């Protein structure tokens, strides 16, 4: 069987694309490891239109339920895609389980993964005091001191996740000020449990069986300082998951897929991308879903042109 479209990814962008593809009666297969993408890690999503507040876990369930309510789409979850290849005029998608699927077009919505600090001790203590998912692991910090590395929205959200549990939270930011939303900054600055350290470069995480602290360089004085903490939550942004298609499409200097921002086509004919994996300006849920919808509508036009060409 040759599909008209295979969507790779089950985050907000992938689900939005799947719903629109189903409604356009495009013969579509959606492949995903799980649903929700990075949004699953948010304790509360407050900027998704239609919801005053919804947890990331509930949001992922809502996305999946909406997608499964569509009749004209095939869904395979729990699937890890291992290869995307250009074969003739179409594509072949391979999974880690050994399955292969053929399609005329492909839409990549794999989003991004956590960036690492790449400092001594980070890999050694991963899961033993070094964490990347605050909503998952914040409860482990009950009555303990924790550090959050990163002063953007990811870091500030991690600090909020830790507030009900940690005895003290130190936010370390490399630049001279926090970069997250002002409303988040104001709330955290007023909380006596929160310490904000700017111009701080984390250089090492240390411990024995578990994390006991970290070292950072004070960029104001160039002096190395220590911080006694039981947990280090790394929240310095995300790395686009482009490994599957890096040899097929053009990437920008940050490793993101370059797309036409009207159509969301990549440099590879027949392959589209949407969401955080692209060189778009705004890595947020609403824009990602909108971009994916535009991509599917363009896929629909593309497929119709193929039919017209075949008939002529």
Provide a descriptive summary of the structure in words:
The chain has 312 residues and is an alpha/beta fold. It folds into two domains: 2-113 and 238-311, FAD/NAD(P)-binding domain (3-Layer(bba) Sandwich), CATH 3.50.50.60; 130-234, 3-Layer(bba) Sandwich (FAD/NAD(P)-binding domain). It is 24% helix and 29% strand. The chain contains six helices and 17 strands. The protein has helices at residues 12-23, 56-68, 134-137, 153-162, 182-190, 285-311, and strands at residues 2-8, 28-32, 74-77, 81-87, 90-95, 100-108, 112-114, 130-131, 145-149, 168-172, 194-197, 200-207, 211-218, 223-228, 231-234, 238-240, 271-273. Strands 1, 2, 3, 4, 5, 6 and 17 form a seven-stranded mixed β-sheet that branches. A five-stranded parallel β-sheet has the order 8-15-9-10-11. The protein has a three-stranded antiparallel β-sheet with strand order 12-13-14, with no helix packed on it. Helix 1 (12-23) packs parallel to helix 6. The radius of gyration is 22 Å and the shape is elongated. The two termini are 24 Å apart. The mean pLDDT is 94.
């Amino acid at each position: 069987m040759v599909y008209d479209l295979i969507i790779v990814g089950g985050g907000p962008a992938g689900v939005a694309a799947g719903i629109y593809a189903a409604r356009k009666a495009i013969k579509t297969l959606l492949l995903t490891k799980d649903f929700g993408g990075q949004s699953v890690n948010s304790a509360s999503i407050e900027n998704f239109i239609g919801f005053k507040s919804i947890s990331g876990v509930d949001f992922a369930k809502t996305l999946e339920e909406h997608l499964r309510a569509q009749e004209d789409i095939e869904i395979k979850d729990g699937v890890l895609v291992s290869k995307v290849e250009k074969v003739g005029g179409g594509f072949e998608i391979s999974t880690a389980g050994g399955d292969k699927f053929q399609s005329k077009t492909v839409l990549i919505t794999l989003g991004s993964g956590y960036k690492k600090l790449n400092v001594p001790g980070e890999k050694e203590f991963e899961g033993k005091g070094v964490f990347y998912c605050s909503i998952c692991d914040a409860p482990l910090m009950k009555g303990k001191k924790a550090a959050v590395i990163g002063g953007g929205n990811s870091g500030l959200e991690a600090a909020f996740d830790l507030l009900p549990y940690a005895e003290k939270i130190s936010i370390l930011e490399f630049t001279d000020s926090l970069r997250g939303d002002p409303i988040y900054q104001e709330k955290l600055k007023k909380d006596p449990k929160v310490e904000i350290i700017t111009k701080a470069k984390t250089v090492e995480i240390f411990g024995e069986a578990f994390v006991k602290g970290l070292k950072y360089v004070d960029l104001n004085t160039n002096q190395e300082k220590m911080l006694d903490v039981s947990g280090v939550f790394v929240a310095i942004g995300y790395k686009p998951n482009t490994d599957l298609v890096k040899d097929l499409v053009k990437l920008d200097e940050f490793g993101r897929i370059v797309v036409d921002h009207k159509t969301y086509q990549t440099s590879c004919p027949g392959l589209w991308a949407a969401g955080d994996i692209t060189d778009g300006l705004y890595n947020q849920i609403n824009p990602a879903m909108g971009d994916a919808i535009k991509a599917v509508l363009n896929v629909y036009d593309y497929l119709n042109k193929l039919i017209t060409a075949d008939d002529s």
